[in-house]
């Protein structure tokens, strides 16, 4: 039995680790009466990939590529392959993943099970939109091959299905052609929420990637005044003499946060000045710039174990999406609550999603606007703030993201995911997670 | 000492082991047009490894040779088959299987199998390739040993003995080829994060990443270093372990 934690470091429970070492896995080993769960790189924040007291099937050994078709841009690989490896192998050849989340150190299986999204949702949707087919292994030994056109009911249950329908062993992904490894970016500071929405809406036509950093402690006037930095970008052609390469020429060596301090380094004393400094620094850098894809898409991947800065108590991430109709008021209300509570982190992201429905029954992205924020774990006061935020989200008809969640109440989960009853029949009875127990009762 | 070669053609024996796989990936990442020959006992598994490499490096030539590495006759046949395909610049011998020490103590057959897979087999494979490298007058043979071979200890002495055999053999081979164009490199990984040692995580053991062990292996082979501890800190750790007087060592539960 080994202690396994998720990225938020909120819990430290014992699990039985069972690496999947056969290519492909033949069967999912389980002690009699036990239940298991697939576990990749452990980058989810809450408990979607934890199974205290049970088995974790480690997918890390499933890191082989199986085939590549240059004419269709289709890559078939085992589910433990990292998005980082796909980018590093294929960007130099002029191909890239159409959708990646804020870190590339996640497995293909994890990306599908959480139906991750990136900064280009309004153009490319979410990860599941680019899965041609996948192979699922059930605890009873059955193998199911499914895709948008083949056994699509299994497919829509598994994409965003939190690993609860079976273990994904292999997937075929569609990559997209890119002109190079660089992006043309534009940085625009804003001082009101209205300005953010204007920027987001006006950027949709001409820009593929849009996102904004937000100062979570700066909300005034009931949240209508808030400062942030809006970023938009498009893939750029190579400049004269430049060669496609996967890593920036002057890439810094990764640094590592060596240990978790007893208290969070992100606290009242540090957050306000940091946010102020960050805003003003970026305000001065406003304008256009050329940036390599790696630091633009994956800003924190070079700081290894950055989650330790929140200290031994760990941290929560709160990510919600609210429909566009109620969006501006809801986001204003959320920001006002957060500023008033004085909690939060410099890692605040505000982004609009595109007008498209996700392919998975339990997928998170929906048309509207999403706010994502880290919160150092201050115990009761943090949970009480979340309860107030839940109220705003629920009233606006929104939902929270399971990949980030460690504490949402069951009622909010059920109201946010109306397709839950359609999802439940696809559940594998030999699989459970801390999240399935908390939110679904098993 | 051999001048660093470009290792255009590399043979990997025991190519399905994780260290071998990562060495293959890193070699192809450094030079995608290399030729690799993968040798192992299971053709289907070798093909899976080869496929992965071919997707990652389409300009590489990757061939597989299936052979029973526990029998002297088939080892010689394997070496002939490899030489019909290519003239290796480097050979990496990387197969192994961490046995269950308790099982080895209970059943002689288990102990014998462990000694063969981890000791006799790597040595005989190295010897088979040494023959042709002697005629060619150049080449690099890398053999994966283990820090476990530095001193027999109660928790894994059957494996340790096999790896001790490998070390003694490598020394002899190095002596034979001293001053020639053939380099013999003994790689000694400490406990590494591979399926072989997955259960060790339970005891909170500090395991190195496979990527770093592979990087140390490749660097050591390209420089022709006689002994490479991977990661390097194990050189100091094992120096201490080897030097401990028996009276103290016997009290340790390792």
> Uncertain segments of chain A of ≥5 residues (pLDDT<50)?
none
Mean pLDDT of chain A: 92
Oligomer: heterodimer
In total, the number of strands of chain A is 21
Write the CATH homologous superfamily of chain B: NAD(P)-binding Rossmann-like Domain
CATH architecture of the domain at 182-415 in chain A, by name, is: 3-Layer(aba) Sandwich
**Main sheet attributes: strand count, strand direction, barrel closure of chain A:** 8 strands, antiparallel
Q: What is the helix fraction of residues of chain A, given as a range?
A: 10-25%
Percent range of helical residues of chain B: 40-55%
Q: End-to-end distance of chain A, in Å? A: 22 Å
Structural category of chain A: alpha+beta
Rg of chain B, Å, rounded: 18 Å
Identify low-pLDDT runs of chain B: none
CATH architecture term of chain B = 3-Layer(aba) Sandwich
Name the chain pair whose interface involves the most residues. Answer: A-B, 16 and 13 residues
Number of separate helices of chain B: 9
Give structural notes:
The complex is a heterodimer of chains A (442) and B (254). With 442 residues, chain A is an alpha+beta fold. Chain A has a domain at 182-415: Vanillyl-alcohol Oxidase, Chain A, domain 3 (3-Layer(aba) Sandwich), CATH 3.40.462. Chain A contains twelve helices and 21 strands. Chain A has helices at 83-90, 108-113, 121-124, 152-158, 193-203, 268-284, 293-297, 327-341, 380-396, 410-416, 420-423, 434-440; strands spanning 2-4, 13-19, 36-39, 55-58, 65-69, 74-78, 95-96, 131-137, 143-146, 167-174, 176-177, 182-192, 209-214, 225-236, 255-256, 287-292, 303-304, 315-322, 348-353, 368-376, 399-400. An eight-stranded antiparallel β-sheet of chain A has the order 16-12-14-13-19-20-18-21, sandwiched between helices. In chain A, strands 5-6-10-8-9 form a five-stranded antiparallel β-sheet. A four-stranded mixed β-sheet of chain A has the order 1-2-4-3, with no helix packed on it. In chain A, strand 5 and strand 6 form a beta hairpin. Chain A is globular and about 55 Å long. The mean pLDDT of chain B is 93. Helices cover 50% and strands 16% of the residues of chain B. In chain B, strand 5 (138-144), helix 6 (157-177) and strand 6 (181-189) form a beta-alpha-beta unit. Chain B is globular, with a radius of gyration of 18 Å. Chain B is built from nine helices and seven strands; from the N terminus they run βαβαβαβααβαβαβαα. Chain B has helices at 18-30, 43-56, 72-85, 101-106, 108-136, 157-177, 210-223, 233-243, 246-249; strands at 9-13, 35-40, 61-66, 90-93, 138-144, 181-189, 227-230. Chain B has one domain: NAD(P)-binding Rossmann-like Domain (Rossmann fold). With 254 residues, chain B is α/β, with parallel strands linked by helices. The A-B interface holds A 1-2, 17, 19, 21, 23, 58, 61, 64-68, 75, 77, 89 and B 18, 45, 48-49, 51-52, 55-56, 58, 195, 198, 201-202.
